[in-house]
Amino acid sequence: MLNCMAAGMAARGRIIAAAFISCALILPLLASAFEPSESGLRFPFPDFINSPSNNIEQGIQTNDPPKEEEPENQMSYKSPLKDKKPKIEQLREQNGVEDQPEAEPAENEDHGDESEAKPVEGNGEPEPVENAKGGLIEGFYEKDCPQAEQIVNEVLMKNLQKDATLAPAIVRLFSHDCLVKGCDASILLDETPSGEDVEKKAGPNGPFVRGFEVIDEAKERLEAECPGVVSCADIIAFANRDSLVNTGLPTYKVAAGRRDGLSSLAENVKNNLPVPDTPLQEMIDMFKRKGLTLEDLVVLVGAHSIGTAHCGVVKSRLFDKRKSMEMDQNYVEQMRFMCTRDDNMLPFDGVTQNKMDSQIYNEFLAKRALLESDHVLAKDPHGNDIMKKMAGDQAAWFAKFIGAIVKMGGIEVLTGNQGEIRRQCRAVN
Ligand code: HEM
Q1: Helix axes 381-392, 394-408, angle to 10 degrees
Q2: pLDDT (average), residues 210-225
Q3: Alpha-carbon distance 173 to 205, whole Å?
């Protein structure tokens, strides 16, 4: 370790950080060269690419029909609802899918605690399910665009082959869309008719929310195959699921039928999206207003099992005497050392940074949370209890995570004749 540090110190600039990180944090990646990116130091993801749970190759290289027996973690696009069309059609009609008149988005509803979503079983026999509150339906596109999920998957996989960091980026994109004015793809809009700043320009989104091009590409393909049918909001939801599955989460069904919002305002972001130093109670209240409990919150921040944060976002805490005293001191040293530039990126989980697994809770509990928000949840007695359970039982965390992310995907959704189906995701029709 000391040799590693010495080697790191002997080098310069980014190389210092790279050598140090290799030695101290991500030894399994030692053999790989670090890849400088436009925006600073980016970590390569070799274990992700080679992970048994990834299905990139299936996604991109063949259009073969799904194999008879697929590993648990992989998605199947067999049409599970073949014999159940009458029910689906009925639901679709109730949901107003036949005619899609444009209308003002409905007032946001507070779903409260009653919007409890059942954890979704990974690979059970599919039943068309109407989400009690949101009116979302599994198999929603079965009739008008049965290949919708397949197309989103293919586009995603193609992009992940070029840049695996898009998986965590899309997971973040989905949560930032849903937490602000519901899962209505408002985060994708480049402008609104009023000319005011849009959500994607707001501080907590800013340059660090990525993945827009993947959604654009999927939308372009879907418009070519089934014009005017698949919403941008559903595309994000499918891509989110597939990104999670590709990083290790068991697969689950995504109920669909979300419609796209007609506006996007930066000012809506402030009170809905927590930032790293949002006080604990405020963070809990924000989630509660969306029908998400403290347990959902703790379970969902487990998504920090994958991906990275920019030094610029975390360094004030690292260099704050009082706050840094609460952290594992070796960890603080390492993080400080790596933060030579604001655009350097640090992995949330220095042990298995590319895998959705409950190991991240061990980091949180050992005072190695990169974000203050994760740390305060680990410090809270309730949060701490939940984290301990999740750390010790990955299967339980998976089930709860799926339940919570499904619930998140139902936040304030527009359905029926609300909103619209955008022709392209960055602008209203
Ligand atoms: C609850 C409070 C939360 C806060 C304060 C928070 C904050 C952050 C911050 C500051 C980053 C780093 C951004 C950057 O520097 O590039 C980040 C990344 C990330 N967040 Fe959260 N987050 C929260 C909850 C969530 C939830 C609920 C999810 C998903 C269910 C999530 C998923 C992610 C992912 C996957 C990344 C990595 C993105 C990437 O590598 O591109 N976060 N978050």
Answers
A1: 120
A2: 98
A3: 9
Alpha-carbon span 316 to 300, nearest angstrom: 24
Task: Express each pLDDT in 256-273 by its tens digit.
Answer: 999 999 999 999 998 999
Determine if ligand 1 sits within 6 Å of the CB of residue 294.
Answer: no
- Ligand 1: which residue has its CA nearest to atom 37? 307
Domain assignments of the chain as residue spans, ordered by start: 56-63+84-272
Distance from Cα 172 to the centre of ligand 1, integer Å: 6
Residue 410 has pLDDT above 90, yes or no: yes
Single-letter code of the amino acid located at 193: P
Q: Which of 159, 200, 273, 304 to mutate to test the pocket of ligand 1 (most atoms within 8 A of CB)?
A: 304
Query: How much distance in Å is there from the Cα of 97 to the middle of ligand 1?
Result: 34
What does the alpha-carbon distance between residue 129 and residue 136 come to, in Å, rounded to a whole number? 8
- Residue 244 in contact with ligand 1 by CB distance below 6 A: no
Give DSSP secondary structure letters for 187-253: GG-S--TT-PPPGGGSTTTGGG---HHHHHHHHHHHHHHSTTTS-HHHHHHHHHHHHHHHTTPPP--
Whether the CB of 175 sits within 6 Å of ligand 1: yes
Is the distance from the beta carbon of residue 269 to the nearest atom of ligand 1 less than 6 Å?
Answer: no
Q: Which atom of ligand 1 is nearest to the CA of 308?
A: 40
pLDDT per residue as tens digits for the range 45-104: 333 322 323 332 222 222 333 333 333 333 333 333 333 333 334 434 443 333 333 333
pLDDT at residue 376 is higher than 80: yes
Task: Give CA 176 to chain center in angstroms.
Answer: 8
Residue 75: what residue type? M
Residue nearest atom 25 of ligand 1, based on CA coordinates: 301
Residues 352 and 53: beta-carbon distance below 8 Å: no
**Per CATH, domain 56-63+84-272 is 1.10.520.10:** yes
The residue among 194 and 143 whose pLDDT is bigger is 143
CA torsion sign for 175, 58, 139, 115 is: negative
Atom index in ligand 1 nearest the CA of residue 278 equals: 5
The CB of 303 under 6 Å from ligand 1? The reply is yes
